[in-house]
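For reproducibility, we list the full input for the pyridoxal-5'-phosphate complex.
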Amino acid sequence: MPSKPQKPTKPPRSPRPESLMMTYGYRPELSEGAIKPPIFQTSTFVFHTAEEGKEFFSYAYGLAERDPLRPMGLIYSRLNNPDIEILEERLNLWDQAEASAVFASGMAAISTTFLTLVPPGSSVLYARPVYGGTDYLLEHLLPGMGIPTREFPAGATPETAEKLCREMQEAGTPVKMLFLETPANPTTVLTDIAAMAAVAHRHGAYCAVDNTLIGPLYQQPLKLGADLVLYSATKYLGGHSDVVAGVVLGSKELVERVKLFRTILGSVLSPNSAWLLLRSLETYKLRMTCARKNAEKVSAWLASHPKVDRVYFPGMIHDAAQQEIYNRQCTGPGALMSFELKAQGEEEAFRLLNAVKMIKLAVSLGGTESLIEHPATMTHADVPVEDQKKIGISPSMIRLSVGIEHPDDLIADLARALDAV
Ligand SMILES: Cc1ncc(COP(=O)(O)O)c(C=O)c1O
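The corresponding predicted structure, in tokenized form, follows.
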């Protein structure tokens, strides 16, 4: 009898990150069966023997080849700690990274990465605007250390970056890092990650992407060809405005190099903050999905308000080239937007900021509560006014991080505040 044709069987799919966020990388039997990892609030760890201590240190400083099947022993919380290790394993899942390193802040992650990978005599090329602290690092601190930097406008073509790479090469300071923040803070302009990574690689440079503003649920720069992805985990990853933290993710080889600098600079995250982030990651997708839906509703309402001139939001793009980039590299718009008032001055912007009630007037973003601020005088106050104009930050621009409140309550608050303008 002829056998029945067999249905092709689908290969089993590995569980999705949101299914793994509660348990991955943690073994309860190592912690008295506790369902959650305890906070390993300890500075140092007891070695079983002196020989073991010697072995762990020889691995930590790369003095001996490590047996990949033997886990690295715990030494001292500036080098390693269980909460840090579990957190790094879980963070790898969202970006599908080989390795990650967590830091005491987003700025610690960014500055440690530059110090590791960009030696004096080489240079950095970056898309501007970037977050104000990063701008200060690139405009003042790195040049002061013999690392020149050059900028190009966020959203520029790869040809622009290519030309600048050639110019820096001719000046005797070849580009070693092409740095992007996309979407850019606060204008939400997108830069083409794949195209810029290709330019960087043609010039022997690394491409690093600050993915803070949109997060790994909606954009995964490593898959697009970036070498490193960075986060201020203070924002969406932390999500509750109660922890300051940073992350770098990429290949094992690059992240190990960054971790050596982290150990020596001492820029590692504390066990307590790592534990808070483990708690936060369990609801990362839920929070993000809700905030994104709210942001779509709020942005549409703002765009139709007679006192609002323009809304900047990856879910509301007006430019064909930007839309193409969005379609290629983002799977959702995130929940951060900026908008400009028709009234052009700081005074009118301040009237709105002083009138909101439910939305809190504070810098930062990505928390469960909605936050509103004035980039020109707050997060980007250090960027000279003429540069602000050039990169699209105006006195009437307001940045809004949409949280997980009911969207109609947020709209009612904004409606009241806009009446005061
Ligand atoms: C895009 C971006 N990157 C980096 C940072 C710096 O992060 P942290 O404040 O955690 O040092 C921020 C802070 O607002 C940011 O918005």
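The radius of gyration is 23 Å. Residues 32 and 38 are 10 Å apart (CA to CA). Both points were considered when choosing residues for closer inspection.
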